[in-house]
Amino acid sequence: MDDATTSNDIRLREGASIAQRLVMAASAAAVALCFTPGLFTHDPLEVIISVVALLSGAAFVGAVMLAPAVVWIITPDEILIGRQRPFGKLQTRIVAKDDITGLQVPGSKTVKARFQLAFTLASGERLTSPPISDVTHVHETVARIAAQFGVADVEAPVNPLDASNPEMRLGEPVEPFSSRDIRIAALIVVALSAAPYAYRLWRGLSPSHVDILLLPLGAIAAFAVYRLANLVTGAFWIIRQGDIRVERLSGSGELRANHIEGRDVKAITVERRGRSEDEHCIVVIRLQSGERFRSPRIGSRNEARAVAAEIVQRLGIAPHASQI
What we know:
Blueprint (H helix, E strand, L loop, with lengths): L4 E2 L2 E6 L3 H16 L10 H23 L2 E6 L3 E7 L6 E6 L3 E5 L13 E4 L4 E3 L9 H12 L18 E3 L8 H24 L6 H20 L7 E5 L2 E7 L5 E7 L3 E8 L8 E7 L4 E3 L6 H15 L6 E2 L1
Parallel strand pairs: 13-16
Antiparallel strand pairs: 1-2, 2-3, 3-4, 4-5, 6-7, 7-8, 9-10, 10-11, 11-12, 13-14, 14-15
């Protein structure tokens, strides 16, 4: 959900739409129903697992369908807060400008570039807004709200994705794993693959074909871990005016850097990598050569769209080249 600005109003929204709720609820219900046959067996363990799965699915469906949608409309004189559950009435509250005595901008513990507005009222009550989805203009938004409500000493949050930064940074600087850690991981893989074979020998049983097959597969997997572990460290993007520097590691741990300029870009899109559009959206850049670069995880779809829009502007790309 976007932060929308109409004249001097700022809108902050939180909560899935009815269509999104139905999709999530239907998926959870389908998974839970897969355990239904276990109720008709004579195995107590299967019956218990089925009951727990069905109860968990029902609880998840209930939580999804009953979670409220929240909207804040921040005007120069007041804050209008609306809260509504899917089957309930709209609840509204108005917070006058004179009731606001403090403002803080706490960051999220799960998503690095996610910020909310925490207002302190004269009564001592603390109100926390939905997230600011335009993560590239957090400083500007906070400064504007602090000025219009006359709140002093508002500490600006550290935001690596703010457009006011000469360099926007996505992800963390990549560092190779230590040789010791890689060796330990490889030895764990070998031990796990050899465990079934060793267990059967210890019990005086003949190893099966699967147990024997696991030994060479474990050796291959351990070699892959030893040689390719550094490839899973991800990427680090530095977005500057005119170009993007993408840093990654090779399998040997050496730093590799690619530079992306506007003329190299064919398309920029926002995609979801994971189960949730609220936490796992990324920016994907496709070059004229066909090569694709996927950014580190950003957050919600709207937060990723804000980053993609800033990339389009910094690289000087025509708007039709982006699908955000």
